[in-house]
């Protein structure tokens, strides 16, 4: 924003002028030697000035002051450079009326605020034409600034050309709106601004406002529509600096205000709101300036690798349950939320003055005309300019339940809230006290909002933005704007919960039924989806506490659900769902679903079909709400498999047949499918596999693998592969047939990593004649099957080269690791757990650590060196954290039971991870 008082430059203008004059006297102003000396002087001046400003910022964290000081530094350099160029290098003894030049700051520089590495936007303004003199001065200044290393955005125009460009381009018009004279001819600049006001600004405020708000919406869509993205853009993101600047542009254009104080004078903000405006502005500038200095470039995205350092510089400390970086980011998101509130306030004021048109919104209002009409049977509220508003300022004082009722009406009738009503709500938050929290009518209305699939997500977000949701449910207030410092969760906790509710609403309305056919089939059969809506709103409500958030969240639910009018049975079911809301995902992604012990263990936890149905839908909605790209079809396939296998146990359909009977039945069914094979071929194939193969591989895969074996033998190929893109699952399955090798899975994993293929599952079998029949599933990279098949062929070729020793996987992965640095911001204490309690036949090794390129290759290589056979591998990645699970036996097919050997396995795997904390991690035995 424009500064109201001069800010002192960190360098002395007189000293710089004297140094420039000395260079001119010593070398001759226009000489090559003088040019180099000037460039060296300006480089040193900028370095000295920036270092002084940086030290001041680190000492005080005054962000706006830092930006103003950097602008003042630039002013001093530009002023002195202009004087040197116009008076010493290109002096004119008798200038004509055309030989006048005004240097004008525009953009951020025009607002007299600059981030450390911002572009410097300059307008070289001439009265009516450019002369040889003004061209020479302009080129000298520009090339000198570029040689110094500054990024200078510039335009060279006459007054008339500037007005014409501003008339045609709203971005240029905005730049002129913020124009500030730096040096040179003042009359030329004054002429521009006088004509700009008279010819462009007068009478065009609605046009400008609409354009700026549309531009804001497009910007938000481009950088992220939510202000709660965990790696926000400080400058362009929703709730960032550009939103505050947009408000000031609108106010300045409409009312010709020149400072933030004038926002109050124009009646757009109250004095308290102005203080909030300034507080938000200063904080965001502090973050942005620190961000530039730390990154040493014009970086606007607050990425994970820089958040912790900024938290340290800004003085945040760790708190029980929250890291310092999480406390910093919570403050950031609360500021972004306040910026959103200020936006609504200014828009309300503009709309009331008819400077900003109100959109037509919904079917409920199509028959209504006029700006203000009463709502039938609801005297406390009116329809004002096609939005719901309060009938008078005492509505919430007269009946505090109206604080909830207004949102219920908005959801029921699909009416948007009037910004004035939102402003009054914010000012009346103290009305939400314990009495209102316990009020039966208020809680009934809240449940109506929550279980309205058409509008629940939108209304809940409005309640959260207004501060109502956190006051009405104080436990929810604790997680408002709370971020989790990891790469898995894309949103703050409160935004994740609201999006989870929205995912359930989308499922109920059939919008995502094709993505989740089983959940869509089960949802209408539930007795009451209210249970799920409540569960989804509360399932992460205890995040940020120094205890398991699932257990603590269940405790919160037992306190809240009776308040919502739910019975004891409903309350206990919601509490159980919250306590177990991660269980189904964990079993599906990290356990072997072909192992009968897995299914029995999960069925023992679930115990009933009602719980199973609820838990499946809860898990789907939870994963979908984590962020874009987190849900994929492969996870859906795993969840469906776990569901169907558990359903068989709960309904008594699993475990009745003996192992030998199941093997015999599987062989009989495959024989029937291979009717075109000769009896000898079928007999030989059936004798090729061990019993485990028949127990774990489904019939369709048996058929495909039988054809793979047959074709490989007919062509006498020792190495053969089958590639199957799976569009719905979002994955591609690759099956390899090759002579067995103790490190075959390791080489396959390395080949996939070298080919940038992410493995999510691996199944390993050995045939009776000593061949490996291994299947891996990799995440899909291309939309079209043909493209995915070609990618699969490249992966297979890499595997074959690795198996034949024609490519060195460790060298390839080392090069890739040097290029991949995003996870460096995180530290995770590695853990290796061994247990024989999760399977009757296998030892289960679970490795949890920081993900990196080639990790699976190194782990599987270590397991092979330990003389262990891997039956299956399950790869689950949660942002920067990976949980890899291996079902293994020793070389004779037994579980690993000896404690000494288990210790050796842990030590070797920790070495493979690359940790110095081996001894500490070895003591953690599951």
Could you write a compact summary of the structure shown?
The chain folds into five domains: 13-202, Beta Polymerase, domain 2 (2-Layer Sandwich); 229-352, Four Helix Bundle (Hemerythrin (Met), subunit A), CATH 1.20.120; 364-433 and 455-472, Orthogonal Bundle (Hydrophobic Seed Protein); 476-656, Hypothetical protein af1432 (Orthogonal Bundle); 690-922, no CATH class. 56% of the residues lie in helices and 11% in strands. With 926 residues, it is an alpha+beta fold.
Describe what this molecule looks like in 3D.
This protein has 926 residues and is α+β, with helices and mostly antiparallel strands. It has five domains: 13-202, Beta Polymerase, domain 2 (2-Layer Sandwich), CATH 3.30.460; 229-352, Nucleotidyltransferases  domain 2 (Four Helix Bundle (Hemerythrin (Met), subunit A)), CATH 1.20.120.330; 364-433 and 455-472, Hydrophobic Seed Protein, CATH 1.10.110; 476-656, Hypothetical protein af1432 (Orthogonal Bundle); 690-922, no CATH class. It is built from 41 helices and 15 strands. Helix 5 links the parallel strand 2 and strand 3. The longest helix has 29 residues, at 32-60. The protein is globular and about 110 Å long.
Question: Any key phrases for this structure?
Answer:
Hydrophobic Seed Protein, disordered N terminus, 41 helices, four-stranded mixed beta sheet, multifunctional enzyme, alpha+beta, disordered C terminus, HD_domain, Bifunctional uridylyltransferase/uridylyl-removing enzyme, Four Helix Bundle (Hemerythrin (Met), subunit A), 926 residues, phosphoric diester hydrolase activity, [protein-PII] uridylyltransferase activity, Beta Polymerase, domain 2
């Amino acid at each position: 924003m424009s500064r109201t008082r001069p800010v002192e430059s960190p360098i002395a203008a007189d000293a710089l002028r004297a140094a420039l004059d000395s260079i001119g006297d010593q070398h001759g102003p226009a000489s090559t030697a003088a040019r180099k000396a000037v460039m060296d002087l300006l480089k040193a001046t900028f370095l000295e000035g920036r270092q002084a400003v940086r030290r001041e910022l680190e000492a005080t964290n005054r962000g706006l002051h830092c930006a103003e000081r950097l602008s003042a530094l630039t002013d001093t350099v530009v002023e002195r450079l202009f004087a040197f160029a116009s008076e010493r290098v290109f002096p004119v003894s008798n200038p004509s009326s055309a030989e006048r030049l005004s240097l004008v700051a525009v953009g951020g520089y025009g607002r007299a605020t600059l981030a450390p590495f911002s572009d410097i936007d300059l307008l070289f303004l001439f009265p009516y034409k450019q002369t040889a003199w003004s061209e020479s001065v302009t080129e000298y200044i520009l090339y000198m600034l570029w040689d110094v290393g500054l990024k200078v955005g510039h335009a060279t125009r006459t007054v008339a050309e500037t007005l014409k460009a501003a008339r045609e381009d709203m971005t240029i018009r905005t730049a002129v709106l913020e124009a500030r004279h730096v040096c040179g001819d003042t009359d030329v600049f004054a002429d521009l601004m006088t004509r700009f006001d008279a010819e462009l600004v007068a009478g065009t405020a609605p046009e400008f406002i609409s354009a700026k708000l549309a531009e804001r919406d497009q910007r938000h869509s481009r950088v992220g529509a939510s202000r709660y993205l965990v790696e926000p853009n400080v400058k362009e993101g929703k709730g960032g600096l550009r939103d505050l600047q947009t408000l000031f542009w609108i106010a300045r254009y409409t009312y010709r205000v020149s400072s933030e104080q004038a926002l109050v004078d124009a009646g757009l903000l109250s004095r308290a709101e102005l203080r909030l405006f300034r507080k938000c502005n200063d904080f965001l500038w502090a973050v942005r300036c620190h961000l530039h200095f730390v990154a040493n470039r014009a970086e606007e995205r607050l990425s994970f690798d820089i958040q912790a350092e900024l938290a340290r510089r800004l003085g945040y400390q760790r708190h029980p349950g929250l890291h310092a970086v999480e406390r910093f980011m919570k403050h950031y998101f609360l500021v972004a939320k306040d910026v959103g509130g200020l936006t609504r306030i200014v828009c309300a004021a503009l709309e009331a003055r008819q400077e900003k048109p109100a959109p037509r919104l919904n079917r409920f209002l199509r028959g209504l005309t006029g700006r203000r009409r009463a709502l039938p049977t609801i005297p406390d509220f009116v329809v004002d300019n096609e939005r719901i508003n309060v009938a008078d300022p005492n509505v919430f004082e007269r009946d505090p339940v109206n604080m909830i009722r207004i949102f219920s009406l908005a959801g029921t009738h699909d009416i948007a809230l009037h910004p004035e009503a939102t402003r009054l709500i914010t000012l009346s938050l103290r009305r939400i006290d314990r009495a209102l929290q316990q009020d039966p009518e208020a809680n009934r209305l809240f449940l109506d909002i929550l279980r309205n699939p058409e509008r629940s997500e939108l209304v809940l977000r409005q309640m959260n933005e207004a501060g109502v949701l956190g006051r009405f449910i104080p436990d929810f207030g604790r997680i408002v704007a709370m971020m989790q410092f990891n790469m898995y969760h894309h949103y703050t906790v409160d935004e994740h919960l609201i999006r989870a509710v929205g995912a359930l609403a989308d499922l109920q309305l059939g919008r995502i039924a094709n993505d989740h056919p089983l959940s869509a089939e089960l949802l209408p059969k539930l007795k009451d989806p209210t249970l799920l809506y409540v569960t989804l709103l509360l399932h992460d409500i205890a995040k940020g506490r120094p205890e398991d958030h699932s257990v603590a969240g269940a405790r919160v639910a037992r306190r809240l659900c009776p308040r919502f009018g739910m019975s004891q049975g409903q309350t206990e079911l919601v509490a159980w769902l919250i306590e177990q809301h991660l269980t189904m995902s964990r079993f599906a992604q990290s356990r072997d679903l072909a192992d009968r012990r897995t299914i029995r263990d999960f069925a023992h936890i679930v115990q009933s079909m009602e719980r199973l149905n609820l838990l499946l839908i809860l898990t789907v909605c939870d994963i979908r709400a984590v962020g874009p790209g987190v849900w994929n079809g492969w996870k859906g396939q795993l969840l469906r498999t776990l569901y169907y296998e558990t359903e068989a146990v709960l309904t008594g359909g699993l475990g009745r047949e003996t192992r030998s009977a199941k093997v015999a039945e599987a062989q009989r069914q495959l024989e029937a499918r291979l009717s075109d094979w000769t009896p000898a071929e079928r007999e030989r194939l059936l004798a090729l596999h061990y019993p485990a193969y028949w127990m774990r591989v489904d019939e369709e895969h048996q058929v495909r693998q039988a054809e793979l074996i047959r074709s490989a033998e007919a062509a006498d190929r020792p190495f053969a592969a089958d590639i199957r893109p799976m569009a719905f699952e979002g994955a591609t399955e690759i099956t390899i047939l090759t002579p067995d090798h103790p490190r075959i899975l390791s080489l396959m994993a390395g080949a996939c990593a070298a080919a940038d293929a992410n493995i999510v599952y691996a199944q390993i079998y050995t045939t009776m004649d000593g061949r490996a029949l291994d299947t891996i599933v990799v995440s899909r990279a291309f939309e079209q099957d043909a493209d995915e098949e070609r990618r699969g062929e490249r992966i297979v070729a890499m595997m074959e080269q690795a198996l034949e020793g024609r490519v060195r996987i460790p060298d390839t992965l080392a090069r890739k690791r040097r290029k991949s640095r995003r996870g460096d911001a995180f530290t995770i204490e590695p853990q290796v757990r061994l247990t024989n309690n999760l399977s009757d036949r296998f030892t289960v090794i679970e490795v949890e650590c920081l993900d990196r390129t080639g990790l699976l290759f190194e782990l599987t290589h270590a397991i092979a060196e330990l003389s262990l056979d891997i039956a299956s591998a399950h790869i689950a990645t949660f942002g920067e954290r990976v949980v890899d699970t291996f079902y293994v036996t020793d070389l004779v097919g037994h579980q690993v039971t000896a404690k000494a050997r288990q210790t050796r396995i842990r030590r070797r795997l920790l070495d493979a991870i690359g940790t110095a904390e081996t001894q500490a991690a070895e003591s953690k035995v599951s």
